[in-house]
Specification:
Strand content of chain B: 15-25%
Shape of chain B: elongated
Order of helices and strands of chain A: HEHEEEEEEHEHEEEHEEEEEHHHH
Strand order of the largest sheet of chain B: 12-11-17-10-18-19-9-20-21-22
Distance between the termini of chain A: 33 Å
Bound molecules: adenosine-5'-triphosphate, magnesium ion
CATH architecture of the largest domain in chain B: 3-Layer(aba) Sandwich
Largest sheet of chain A: 9 strands, mixed
Number of domains of chain B: 4
Number of helices of chain B: 22
Helix content of chain B: 25-40%
Strand content of chain A: 25-35%
Oligomer: heterodimer
Number of helices of chain A: 9
Largest interface: A-B, 21 and 18 residues
CATH superfamily of the largest domain in chain B: P-loop containing nucleotide triphosphate hydrolases
Structural class of chain B: alpha/beta
Structural class of chain A: alpha/beta
Shape of chain A: elongated
Chain lengths: 340, 655
Amino acid sequence: MSDLLGNLEAYIRTLPAVDVRVTLSHSPLADETPMRAESEVIPGGRELAEECGIMAIDVGGACKGEFCCFMDGMQRPRGPIYVNSPVPILYGYVAAAIRVRGSDRRMRTLPGFHKVDESLYFSVGMAERYGLTISGVKIVDTSDSDTIEHPIALAQVAYDKISTIRGALESELAAKWVDQNKGPGWLLVDGSLQSDYGEANVVGVTKSHGTQYLTWDEQRVVLSMKVGERSGAFIPLVHGRRRPVYSWYLRMHPSEGKDPYFGLIRVEAPRSARALAMIDDISRWILAERAPLSLPDSRWDKMIYPIRDCELYMKSLAPSHTSLDARLFRLSEISRSREG
Amino acid sequence: MENGLQQIGRVVATEAKPSTAYSFSFWTADDSKVGIGTLVVVVTEKVEVFGVVVEGFGFTDLGSPLHDYIGAEGDPQAEPPTIRPEIKLYSAAVLRVEPEEPLQPVPIGPVFLADDAAVARALRMDAYVGRSEIPVGLYQNGDLLAPVYLDSEFLLGPEAAHLNITGVSGLATKTSSIEFILQSIFASFREDVAVVCFNVKGCDMLFLDFPASAPEGYKYEKKYLDNNIQTITPEDAEKYEKLQVPCEPFANVNYYAPYKPDRVNLNTLRTHPDLIGSVKPLSWGLKDILEYTEVVLNRDDVDAKADALIQFIRQRVFEQKSEANGQPFEVKNFQHLNQWFDAVLREMETSNRSEWKTHHYATIRKVYNRLTNLSGRYRGLISPDEFTSDLPWGSFEDRGIYVVDVAKQEAQAQDLVFTRIVSKLREHLEKGNLGVKHIIVVVDELNKYAPSDGQESYLRQTLLDISERGRYLGLVLFSAQQFRSQVHKRIVGNSATCMYGRMDMDELATPGYQVLTPATKEKLATLSKGQLMIRHPHFNQPIFVKFPRPNVLRGPDGIKIFPPADELPIEEAIWQNLSRIDRNLSRSAVKDLVAETQDDEEVVRAMNITIQKNPDDPMAYFRRQVRKKANLLDDDEPPVIIKDVDAGVDPFEGV
Ligand SMILES: Nc1ncnc2c1ncn2[C@@H]1O[C@H](COP(=O)(O)OP(=O)(O)OP(=O)(O)O)[C@@H](O)[C@H]1O
Ligand SMILES: [Mg+2]
């Protein structure tokens, strides 16, 4: 791994006058929270794909399926860091991995399917206004003419950009997998399908429900689905555009007496006739993945174990929170040591 | 790997479970050969750390068993599509770090299995192999068998000494391991050494001169086959080869046993006609006992007054010309002593005096009673007459084993035998005239002879004394017991080398084993035969080894091949004993003489004297000895004065 923060430190030390400020205590869940969708509901729409509409359908119980590969991504943002200016600079580590489940039912990384990226995210143009021309490190420019010139807004843009890069990494891996795998096995990815996979054996599973695709009445049907039931399938619309997938909701665990979203996932499959015919099967395959449980992960009701496994794998290789914090702390010390 | 070692794991350290200077953790591949007791090496650029695995953990990311239950819907047969990764994590205790300074926590690094050379370094054996090594067993690492050596300077002195072994009956191979290590000492020790074994249990050590496996063409080959004697396996033979210890029985074994009360049949199980000739009687006379009166007499009895009288007898009566009741005496044995006492008492009675040479009448009665009772109480061991037979004081042989069979003796007689022999050993070692410079004393059932609780006894004091001072003299104790916790603390505490065979869980729960990890305890509780855990001053941690079965006929097998002879009637026994010095001795002549004499004690005395003298014409000599008593020949023995009127009754009992 490149020593990105070390290089940044080296650069800062070359500056004649330094005022470095670092936001150290980011949320401990920083790996998962920065997606806007989690906190803000985005309006969407739907086009019904099955004649029955959005009614609850019993899929007929769990059934051992064809999932053999699993993909997840992660991001570890840190900062913001301010160097001689109020322009927020974010550190971002992103990764994506596909893990294969062998005939021994154990998970291993598919060779060549672990991708990582470590970059600094900031508006290069604004930084330059303060004479900052950071070199020797990988930079992702977040300049955007629409952005309000306010440190918080700038930081939010940078966070979003980190998510985007992560999504790109995932898409890249998924595309490569689809390209190389023509067998009967299926790939299950964490989150929604980013591109049109045509007839490929790919399924996406989303745990967050921040986009409103269904009408109020339809939402009511979905939220009262029992365990083992799915909703009728639909084509999701975003900004009025039809996404290249069929989607449906599936209740993984009984939610009686709990949060109505407990155990509720949204599945996406490529928008092909083949996938449409397999909705019940795919649902049953997913139900079979409920064991082993993903506990102690707090999202265990919606997260299948192989995805947790991918996540653990990536996190075990990512720079730790402690080491990142230590690096950032060293940055913040530079100006003080200069004063002294 | 460059160093030629096989990498089997990687060190891991967390804040919750950090490495220290004395311990570290590592994980291994699923199929690695690591287990409790395995020796490993961590190699980094700066240091090499040798460690022994003391605990193992296996776990998955499962947070609670309940999660597995829920995930399987309560169905134990449910097969989840994914199997959780399972880690095998081991804790190791540090044996050695190179370089030794600075002493730092074990670094993160690759972990390798130790090979022969690494085992030698891990156990610091490089310091003494080639100089004072004693093979003790083989450390097994997968298919590799690495020899483990003890340092004789720490086993047999002078740096440290003594060996103690603990373990349950029958499975711990305590007796066997002592036999093996003795053989190993004989093969490797660079100075002279002899062994005194106290056989305290049945037939345990009575066939040390016979092999476990009959070699081809061996005299007893058929008997071995008929009795289905368990032989030495090729694996055991390989171990002998690896350890360079000859796979043989002991060449020079000498057996001693007291007589039975009849004083003609030896009180041992080694009485098969083929073997009885090699057992010498252990028979001590008045002189031998006078030096150890405090052991054989009840301590409460020997007050200052009694002690003064005993001193008087030692200095003025025993083997001296003296007088009592107007008669001349030269007391040489217990019979004489009885006569002397009778004369003294008679003199006091006739003169109506309550004191005799400042000794009070009551004291004299009391000492008389106690001393003369001895030859009755220990009839087989203490000779009433001048015949004595003892260990070869002054001419102990290098590599000789002297087995003293006290298995059939009652506790007090055992006490006397132990105490006197050990005291004599010490005396001779101190003076440097024993015949060898090192003596190993083997005592089984130590918890019986040196219990942690219970009364102070001479024997326990003697054993404590060896354990504390013996190493300077060359007097070394090899002891065994089932329960170490029941043995006097300082005796086991002074034992520099300790071995543990299969152990009892209750024993492991006692405070003495707190330093062991639960896994090590579990391993100890399930050790198979021939496996031992060893502590030795050079080893920073206990080490597990395997040793081969000793090539010595096991007691129970020996009894099968050489069943003990029935106890013989006195005339038959006398004839047989005398036949040992004269093969052509006439059975009927002996029989007739015994019948004629009508005094068994007398013929037994005559027999013993004859055997001891080994004259040219045994029958004639024997006859002359018997006649002496009948006063048919000139005699310098004092006449019989009086028979003890109340022998065995102590008028002062309860005074
Ligand atoms: N190295 C060995 N490998 C396998 N078996 C062995 C080995 N050594 C001894 N044995 C067998 O183990 C059994 C018990 O051995 P041993 O008599 O030495 O045990 P012990 O601990 O002295 O028992 P006890 O407490 O009854 O005296 C014997 O049958 C012996 O043959
Ligand atoms: Mg034994």
